[in-house]
Amino acid sequence: MPESQPPAAASTCPLCGGSGTHDLSGTDLMFGGDTRYDYDRCRRCGLVYLNPLPTPGQIAAFYPDSYSIYTPPRRPHFSRRALLTLKYRMGYRHLQIRPVPGLLERLRPFRRVDHIVPWVRDGRALDIGCGNGEYLLRLQSVGWRCKGVEFNDKAVEICRRNGLDVFHGDLEAAALDSESFDFVTAHHLLEHVPDPHRLMAEIARVTRSGGRVLIRTPNSRSIGRALLREYWFANEIPRHLMLYDRDNLNRLAAEHGLRPESLSTPVKPKLLLRSLDYKTGNRGTPSEKKPLMKALAMLYVPFASLPGRGDELAALYRKA
User: Fold this and answer.
1) Cα angle: 94, vertex 99, 105; to 5 degrees
2) Which of 74, 111, 201, 263 is a Cys-bridge partner for 81, taking CB atoms 3.0 to 4.6 Å apart?
3) Is 263 in contact with 316 (CB distance < 8 Å)?
4) Which SS3 state, helix, strand or coil, does residue 41 take?
């Protein structure tokens, strides 16, 4: 790719209104094409954003028919070890779990269960951008009353075939009642949204006082992105309109009455392997399917596990 040049004028950050300067340029490595897209980084809050921001029509064109990657859910239930953690560490005492078969199994430590909150009696959960509904089915299997919101028609069809209550459209169009959910989740949605304040305001509105909100999104401060720049798989140029770090994500949430409760930055070795395939132009067997490459990628884990430098932000908030 030719050496990119910064735009002549500073842009305006869509999150805080600060001024942004050039961060990187890249092309659509997932679907090809030679159109160059420029991303700026805000000098005030650090948000990375596509400049200029595309129109709704342009955004729709970023998603070809082949982007519909939704398949039937493969893991609609928690594993047995995860269920033990939920029952004995997170308040899900109502779960019926078969007896532990042997001494060694009983001595195994409880398995950490991410992306779920302690039990709420008669709790209602909402998953925004719920995809094929796999996560909702998992929540439903342990007692949550679930609803989903999803824009993709094929994904909605899969959800409804599995008995899920899913609205076809975006969150605002769903017109859900205020303060009606105890647990609201958005898994890898925020980075696709051109108006984060509008989305976060609606999330806060439908969340009950004391309820929790889980946001998962790529981490713009990850080691992988620093090393691989425009080839980092989670950039997903140009569909990812904005990339967040811990501080500006907390800032966005705080402006809508959501207080941080916990935040982790998980490391995803498969992101490294997919990024290396982009970098090397590998069009053959994906590196994540090669045992040697998978083993080498595990060396990336401790390196990328520095505080705040993992591949993903997994942020849990509580509504004041």
Assistant:
1) 115
2) 111
3) yes
4) strand
